[in-house]
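Schema walkthrough. Field components (list of strings):
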Amino acid sequence: MKVQRIYLCENSIEGIFTAIYQAWSSRYGHANIKIQEKNDMGLYSNFELFSEYFMVETDLTLVTKVSRSIKEKISDEAYQMVYRVGISNYKGKADLIYRFLIFGFSVGPKILGHLSNEIVGQIYKINRYVSNEVHHMHGFIRFSEQENRILVSVIHPKNNILALIAPHFADRLPEERFIIIDGNRKIAVLHLPGKSWVLIGLPNYSEASYYQYSSKEEEYQDLWKAFFENIAIKERTNFNLQRNNLPLRFRKDMTEFQS
Amino acid sequence: MIFQEDMTIQRKLEILSDAAKYDVACTSSGVDRKGNGSGMGNSLACGICHTFSADGRCISLLKILFTNECIFDCKYCINRSSNDIVRASFTPQEVCELTMEFYRRNYIEGLFLSSGILVSPNHTMELLLQTLVLLREKHHFNGYIHCKAIPGADPVLIEMLGWYADRMSVNLELPTADSLRELAPHKKRKNILKPIRQIQLRRENEKEYLGLPNKQILLGKSDIIDSDMKEVISANTSLQLYQSTPKMKRRFVPAGQSTQMIIGATKESDYQIMSVAEALYKNFNLKRVFFSAFMNVNQDNRLPSTEEGPPLLREHRLYQADWLIRFYGFQTKELLSEEKPYFNVLLDPKCDWALRHLEMFPVEVNKADYYTLLKVPGIGTNSVRKIMMARKNASLDFADLKRMGVVLKRAVYFITCKGRMMYPMRLDEDTITRQLLSDKKQLPHGVDQSITYKQLTLFDDFNLNFNVN
Ligand code: SF4
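Field assembly_structure (string):
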């Protein structure tokens, strides 16, 4: 029996695709290989005994090769789905994507119809989970206006979804300068009127530096809170239903729940 | 008339959102409209919930009345002229400012503008129209707008408004003409149906401007249609209001119409209510019929008391049935009849129907057609779609169904996989009913889960009183 090989990679689509390329081309046998991504803390979750470890350096030319093969040999839709799994917080996503692609390269675009296959089922499930969070964020994001009329929003999503949220707001607020910050990952989307949005790193981000409200801002926050209070029907009060629809974890970033 | 010139916008907003809270609106099944690169706003067909209020309902739109002044005296309404309450009115500018500033901060998906009747229906409609024109033309607002049409207003005003709104609604208020005469003496059912008809015809006339194709599946023509409806439909409505379409890059009421009925203020049965809803869908091409559990806000003893809470469970069952009619190919007369005019309090309408049609079950999941699968309790439209796709590649088993979102707890009594039931069981109505009732999901969210069978059976069909926690 061969010794199991574990490829350790960066927690990103690029890292995972590089690892998949290297694992594949090693011809060591898919059954003897595992791919593991770093966790959010930048560490690897569990070391296994009797395994050989390979550290994967992200390599963009390999990434392009893998993306292209997925689109050509499976489908664009499959690529989208893999991408969403890649930005999810699912532990073991790198290996799941690896298994999915092994299957996909053998059956082609038909793979998405194999709903009763466990790996495919799992890929769908994570996709729903990520898409749900994106959809939630479209509604739950709150902007506050700063002195210079810039709109700022801070969110703490579970999945790394800024790039999936940005197009919606760029389309909706074409004439605004806005910034959406992922407070956990210290990255942000920046949008300027007439330009396309960009993703930037904010290594020095701290909550405090982004609250220089404009003179009108607090007035609108108060108006919104007043509306929020008055629109509820007291006789129908139902906090269970409210919590089901709007999980507590979103609320700390939402104006109407801040005192 | 007292205009509160000195009232702050905050105070106005408090009063006029409080007064609008009983109106139901929803942005979904709306329109897809990309941003146009300038101005502000776009619109998504799926709708977006921006937050949820303490009653658990979605907040998506800035839902306000333009004014709570009213010359009418509808018995069920807090704004009726005979009430001594603080009155307030926005100006069109104030509504625009609130909408734009809320929208920029992503508080809302758009505006829902309703109104009491100030001076006259025409005067009120003119104010609403002025507001919408300002929003669209001056502020370049491109987000979602739902606006009420005021019955009795000049058809020209209704037509104009339709070019600025995404959705329009005229509230039917009560299911029958008799009830309306009793509780809303100033309103006439025909006057409510007329603008609904006008908007319907205009939309159908502007085929190329129609919104999304209706995803609803409504089978058959409605044979339950009352005399008012017949008269309004057969009347010669002239659509020559505008010889040519106004020069606008907009469509006419692209998200279609909705309406609303108050449930439990009057004596109509579920059967009557659902029949009216079905007739509205089929004959007036409505997108949504909303039900609003009656609240006796005026403590008026001529109306049923709601001291122990509004009839929420009844409202819930009506919505479930409404869903079955719009998306599952059911018809009212399959679900209810003169002899059985009320929904089962304990079971959702689909389970209830299936139990009365056991001769049609069990069905084989790997073979049954789309509509047959849709009628199985515990299987929804999404699961059916997945089943149809997956069974092309493999023959499905119960574990697969579970993964596809089928609620096995409910479905097992009605299906086989590869010719077998999940486990051997007796298929008689009593046994299955007992099993299904042990599933607390039968009750809507938030209804006290510790409620006992005995308490439930005590509910009286006319006034389902229960507390929500
Ligand atoms: S017309 Fe409308 S606002 Fe006026 S009393 Fe009747 S329901 Fe209320």
